[in-house]
Fold this sequence. Notes:
- This protein has helices at 6-13, 15-21, 32-35, 40-52, 64-73, 89-110, 156-164, 187-197, 225-232, 239-252, 268-274, 299-311, 320-326, 370-384, 398-403, 416-419; strands at 25-30, 56-61, 79-81, 84-86, 126-127, 132-136, 139-140, 143-144, 149-154, 168-171, 174-176, 182-184, 202-207, 222-224, 257-262, 281-284, 289-293, 330-335, 338-348, 353-361, 389-394, 407-409, 429-434.
- The protein is of the alpha/beta class.
Amino acid sequence: MTNTPxxxxxxxxxxxxxxxxxxxxxxxxLPGAAIxxxxxxxxxxxxxxLNNLGVRIILVHGARQQIDKKLNEHxxxxxxxxxxxxxxxxxxxxxxxxxxSTRFAIEAALSTGLPNSPMHHANLQVRSGNFVTAMPCxxxxxxxxxxxxxxxxxDAHGLDEVLFNGxxxxxxxxxxxxxxxxxxxxxxxxxxxxxxxxxxxxxIALTKDNGVLDEKGEIQxxxxxxxxxxxxxxxxxxxxHFSLKACYKACDQGVNRAQIISYTEDGALIKExxxxxxxxxxxxxxxxxxxxxxxxxDVGGILDLIxxxxxxxxxVRRSRELLEQEIGHFTVMEIDGTIIACAALYPFVQDNxxxxxxxxxxxxxQGQGKAAKLLSHIEKxxxxxxxxxxxxxxxxxxxxxxxxxxxxxxxxILPQEKQTIYNYHRNSKIFVKQL
Length: 435
């Protein structure tokens, strides 16, 4: 017998995500620099995969690199005001050409179908259109930005029709006014407004950097809106900083989650979406890590956690039937819908005591403080139930419970009901914590 290959095990782990993402709407921000990068073909393959899995995709592209190149070819120097390009009559023509050629390059890449490639028989349908109504930015601090505009309205109904037919919606950073004028827009604003107005499930920002770094240079895997606010106070001109602004704005206005990942890393999009820990930075408005009472449909996830320890003899074996009967005593911690820790609280009402049992954390999350956080939640539950002490029987985790404030005790401290069923063969140590 050989071990199951890693890729088979990894593929099985994607099942919950495939189910969860089917029919969901993702807005993907694709900067112009990503389109000329050597990894662009892999990004296209991953977008095709998402589309084939039933994800509704709106692709909003930028073209800053392409615009700069086109203007340089015609010896036109861009005028910048507070970080915004001033689009005059002379540069507008070349700007539209650069954006148009960029859009055509993306459409061509999404239309490939060579044999022996991930795009074989993909038959992706890509639809573009005048989904964005724009208006001029006007005069800012005395400077007329001319043909540089901002989003006035998004045709959410038109985009929804494209997605309903299974096509990928491709949106360029151009907008058209009711008077027929063309305006240069920032693709980050376009993507954010689309994500908010269409009610997208995710906004995904592809950047050169693989996520947002803190002051120590470490990647922040998850950020709440409050944490985003603090990071955005920093003076930062990196691509990831501007992407963080877009993600913050989208989540602040109703999008549940946004992700920042690298366009230079092969498979970053797949790793971010189909693994529990992700690969870049997630911005979320809801609770990414949740502690809650267990439900009957959590039985399978709890069994997956505890069965390895039951096999080793660390935990007393529980049948599925027993677990279903006792599910009301369990509390679980989940990350992105996957149960990663559990614990049970059994009350002994007459003694104002409670037993902490079946406390397990998935190996991938051990050493991260998850168990201590779950224990704190259980202690609050016990206090609400008027319990004055919590006890636990353990054979191998004595030191950890001592670190959490438990003290070793004797059999006599246990409620009489528990004393009568104490398993002398297991010879578990007894620890008690006063609440």
